[in-house]
Amino acid sequence: MRPLQIDLWRKFHDVTINDNTAQINKYHMYLSLTIIVNNHIHSQMVATTVISNETKETYK
Questions:
Q1: CA-based Rg of the chain, rounded to a whole angstrom?
Q2: What are the start-end ranges of the H helices in the chain?
Q3: 39, 46, 49, 58: most buried, per Cβ within 10 A?
Q4: CA-based angle 21:23:28, to the nearest 5?
């Protein structure tokens, strides 16, 4: 995460949305998107990740 994204995460951590695709690409990888909603009810993407599996260890 970039410094601005880390600052946003720390400030607006109360509402966080995480969404993953369902292996629809040719590499069978997941795209994980993390979005926050701030106190002005605006959403902002704070992290994107490409992962090979959806296990607890991956998300740690």
A1: 13
A2: 3-11, 56-59
A3: 46
A4: 135
User: At CA 2, angle to CA 37 and CA 52, rounded to 5?
Assistant: 85
pTM score: 0.58
pLDDT in tens, 11-33: 776 777 778 887 677 888 888 88
Look at residue 23 in the predicted model and tell me its pLDDT. 67
Taking residue 46's Cβ as centre, other Cβ atoms within 10 Å add up to: 20
DSSP letter assigned to residue 10: H
Q: Which two tokens stand for residue 18?
A: 């995480």
Q: E-assigned strands of 1-60?
A: 16-20, 30-37, 43-51
As a whole number of angstroms, the distance between CA 41 and CA 20 comes to: 22
